[in-house]
Amino acid sequence: MKIPRRLQPLVDDGLIDEVVTQLMSGKEAQVYVVRSGGELRCAKVFKEARQRSFKQAVQYQEGRKERNSRRARAMAKKTRYGQKEQEQAWLNAEVDALYRLASAGVRVPRPYGFVDGVLLMELIGDAEGFAAPRLDDVTLGAEEARGHHARVIGEVVRMLCAGLVHGDLSEFNVLLDERGPVIIDLPQAVDAAGNNSAAMMLERDVDNMRAYFGRFAPELLETDYAKEIWALYEAGELHPESRLTGCFAHDTAPVDVDDLMTVIDDVREEEAHRQAARHRGDEPGVEEAAEEWRESRREC
Ligand SMILES: Nc1ncnc2c1ncn2[C@@H]1O[C@H](COP(=O)(O)OP(=O)(O)OP(=O)(O)O)[C@@H](O)[C@H]1O
Ligand SMILES: [Mg+2]
After folding, report:
1. How many domains does the chain have?
2. 25 alpha carbon to ligand 2 midpoint, in Å?
3. Could you name the domain of life of the organism this protein comes from (predicted)?
4. pTM of the predicted model, to two decimals?
5. Residue 241: inside a domain
6. Per-residue pLDDT tens for 9-42?
7. From the centroid of its chain, how far is CA 48?
8. Which ligand is nearest to the CA of 119?
9. 160: nearest Cα among 223, 91, 243, 104
């Protein structure tokens, strides 16, 4: 196809060999399939600041640290230079989040750099180069919905352990390839420790996922993972392998200590198996994830 103006500098620099096609244009960006580094990749071209909608709201930016103090001072003043720096910091946020999350083991597109307002990243798709569908594009069976839901909740936990809340998680920002869900679209990602809205945003993200997967597996609508996850996070006890139940209740009944110790031992043992599987690089398949989920609900 004809090379879009914003991609021309990357073509001139040899970062992009060919622009293959344009994917659906989102509210904030245009996304293209390009040939780069000998393979098909995605190029996300951010729209100009004034064309963008809600995501740059102040609420999302609280707690983001600007390491360069001269730039931080400029951003605080509302000069034109300060606004430019602010814009650059916003654009860098998605690529920063992708690098951070990829290294924390979250399934996100692998980033290949950010040049002239264009983010180059892995194309999530099939072997023929067709882009993967969004959750919103697919119809799921109940068992698939349970499995994918469990995987997405696992990713949300891993993201939070890496210090981030997505902030705009919905069926439009999760792709589904043959290995399962992949989380995309992160420029608004929120700093979990430094942002007063983080708990609210985590809850909104998790509840969006519950509502979506609950359409196919209505028993998911009874779960409450958000409060459970946040309570563990605040207590400093959240780990990527944390065992969640999906129920959150303030239980005031007296506890049978022997019973409790047996449950804890069982959970530890299962956990050890799971950790070993992860170290071997096995990801749970959709049925396995659904089965683990059913098992975890029994502890409710
Ligand atoms: N790495 C990728 N691999 C395959 N498809 C992708 C990838 N990144 C984005 N897409 C496609 O491009 C669309 C827009 O991307 P994205 O959600 O990041 O942009 P956006 O403009 O910020 O979206 P929104 O409208 O949600 O604000 C996605 O819905 C998805 O279909
Ligand atoms: Mg999107």
Report:
1. 1
2. 9
3. Bacteria
4. 0.85
5. yes
6. 999 999 999 999 999 777 789 999 999 999 999 9
7. 24
8. 1
9. 104
